[in-house]
Design a protein that fits this description.
The chain has helices at residues 20-23, 35-49; strands at residues 2-4, 7-11, 56-57, 67-70, 77-80. The chain has 81 residues and is an alpha+beta fold. The chain has a three-stranded mixed β-sheet, with no helix packed on it. It has a two-stranded antiparallel ribbon with strand order 4-5.
């Protein structure tokens, strides 16, 4: 977590390799050493971030851009800032 005053942003490193791993809870990456733990970790993070205004970035996301996890009807959606 990076913060300044009341502004926050989250850098998640290798927790997810692409935004789809946060929007599609059943997806797994071939790089996951412990696939079940990785899936639970991503799902927990997604539940915490969904619908917040916290921008998120990861080392492997396209263009290393920040985005947000939006609450969708029946499923989550990702939006790059």
């Amino acid at each position: 977590m990076v913060s300044s005053g009341r502004h926050r942003a989250l850098l998640i490193g290798d927790v997810a390799h692409c935004p789809m791993e946060l929007t599609e809870p059943d997806w797994q990456a071939v790089f996951d050493v412990d696939p079940e733990l990785a899936q639970r970790t991503r799902e927990s993070l997604a539940r915490e971030l969904e619908g917040t205004d916290v921008p998120v970035a990861a080392a492997h996301f396209p263009g290393m851009s920040f985005g947000r996890l939006l609450a969708g009807t029946g499923r989550r959606m990702w939006s790059f800032d």
